[in-house]
UniProtKB/TrEMBL annotation:
Domain of life: Bacteria
Name of this chain's protein: SprA family protein
Species: Arcobacter defluvii
Pfam families, sorted: SprA-related
């Protein structure tokens, strides 16, 4: 009798285990059917997963940097002749919009043969590259090169010769 009772107990335990495995298998199957987007990127509008103050602070940093970069590059472009449109480097902000995080403008650096025109153009390049409040390395390099070329033109005008 004892053997029969043990057999029934073990049998019922295995039956329950089998039922639980089946239930877990169904749950796993449903999880696998969900797309990666649903699993990882589900947005619940009723719950806040972020601090609103942090979100605004980060968003304001993106907006301020965008404004600073655009003003910087437009100041350069307005000071001298350019060879192309302003080129911006963008980054996606927390609101999903693109914000300028850097930029560049290509100046026309060709030197006219007329020494007076060349002097005027070099002065424009110098002013355009150094007209912003915070100079980048490229800005300083262009201003320095324009200034050196202007000095070279002036010395040539005064009759100095440079031989190698």
């Amino acid at each position: 009798m004892e053997i029969t009772d043990n057999y029934l107990n073990i049998s019922s335990i295995y039956q329950e285990l089998s039922l639980k495995k089946s239930q877990l298998s169904n749950i796993d199957k449903k999880e696998n059917e969900k797309s990666t987007f649903e699993k990882n990127d589900l947005v619940t509008l009723g719950e806040k997963n972020y601090d609103e103050n942090d979100y605004q602070r980060v968003l304001n940093k993106f907006k301020n940097k965008d404004n600073e970069v655009r003003t910087h590059e437009q100041t350069h472009a307005s000071g001298a002749t350019t060879t192309s449109a302003i080129n911006y480097n963008y980054q996606v902000g927390p609101d999903g919009k693109l914000y300028a995080m850097g930029g560049s403008v290509r100046f026309d650096t060709s030197i006219p043969e007329n020494s007076q025109s060349a002097k005027v153009k070099l002065e424009q390049l110098k002013k355009a590259s150094s007209s912003v409040s915070s100079l980048s390395g490229a800005d300083a390099s262009i201003a320095q090169t324009a200034n050196l070329n202007k000095m070279l033109l002036e010395s040539l005008k005064q009759g100095f010769t440079y031989e190698n």
